[in-house]
Amino acid sequence: MRHQYHPLGFEGSRIAQGFWRLEEWNMTASETLSFIEACLDLGVTTFDHADIYGGYQCEALFGEALKLKPALRDKMEIITKCGILLPSENRPDIQVHRYDYRAEHILASVDCSLANMQCEYIDTLLLHRPSPLMDADEVAQAFDLLFTLGKVKHFGVSNFTTRQFDLLQSRLDAPLIINQVELSPLALQHFEDGTLDHVQQHAVTPMAWSPFAGGELFSGVSEQAKSVQAILSDLAQEKNCEIDQIVVAWLLRHPAGICPVMGSGKIARLAAAVEAMSILLSDDDWFRIWVASQGQPVP
Ligand code: NAP
Question: Looking at ligand 1, which residue's alpha carbon is closest to its atom 2?
Fold first, then answer.
């Protein structure tokens, strides 16, 4: 019998933990396991990966930790991505940094991710970046097979425009449930280009990658960064919290239901983000940050 697609779409935690930088954290497998368990204890059950993270190494580091306690697998939602070919020491077979959405590549990439993470299924597979050569019909065939084989439960995209999203969706039986894009007080583009309107219209979950602009929000020296930092400090003082918490509250305040993907390997930073779920920013507060980043008043 054919499996049915889950009607409810993305059912992950409101805040996700990303593992792009896992290799830089220099953790042993048991330290990574402790980190994973601490995330779960905080209620952060959605873990974001990609085949290429850490030069194709992060998924395997995660898998080595999971192998120490396989029962944890069903307590989490694993997102991973495919489609970028990245020349690296670990992949001498890749000559050119490019994209590949041929069915053969998607299927092989998922098998590799499953083997690396030592698990049986991926909760949500995202196409990492749009490609001019992507054939939506071929992607649909690959998705169908992955779903039928029970290897992937849901599908989504990352860094797709609304048009690219619609094209792919038009060829799929499965609903695309995530568009993961860059969103932060220093990255406003997708607030204004229709991405966040489109996800609301189609009940898709927007995930925010680099919610702290990769750390630029704290250390950046551009005019924009300095202006945003000044408002964040004022708000943090007014609300008796930290500036990173104001940023999380700012993202969560948006009606699209943004799910920030946190990037630090320090569990205290994730705990602070979770705490920020209870900070409610007023519309005045929200716009103070918006205007500081835009560098001009709203029209
Ligand atoms: P981020 O949270 O914007 O940046 C993380 C960086 O900010 C780390 O270097 C961290 O340093 C620093 N940081 C965090 N909190 C801080 C604080 N309170 N004070 C000072 N520095 C702080 O996120 P990201 O790592 O760039 O991205 C998050 C996740 O998004 C990734 O892991 C990945 O899963 C996903 N991602 C997806 C895409 C895509 O194309 N789909 C692209 C990029 C990333 P410490 O390590 O010292 O805490």
Answer: 263
pLDDT in tens, 56-67: 999 999 999 999
Task: State the CB neighbour count (10 A cutoff) for residue 33.
Answer: 19
User: Is residue 137 in some structural domain?
Assistant: yes
Whose CA is closest to 259, among 1, 12, 6, 59?
12
For residue 280, tell me if it sits in a domain.
Answer: no
Instruction: Answer whether residue 5 shows pLDDT above 60.
Output: no
How far is the centre of ligand 1, averaged over its atoms, from the C-alpha of 34 (Å)? Answer: 19
Please tell me the total count of domains within the chain. Answer: 1
Q: Is residue 35 part of a domain?
A: yes
Choice from 13, 20, 32, 86 to test ligand 1 binding pocket (greatest atom count within 8 A of CB): 20
Atom of ligand 1 nearest to the CA of 216: 7
275-289 pLDDT tens trace:
999 999 999 999 999
- pTM for this model (two decimals): 0.97
Residue 51: other Cβ atoms inside 10 A: 22
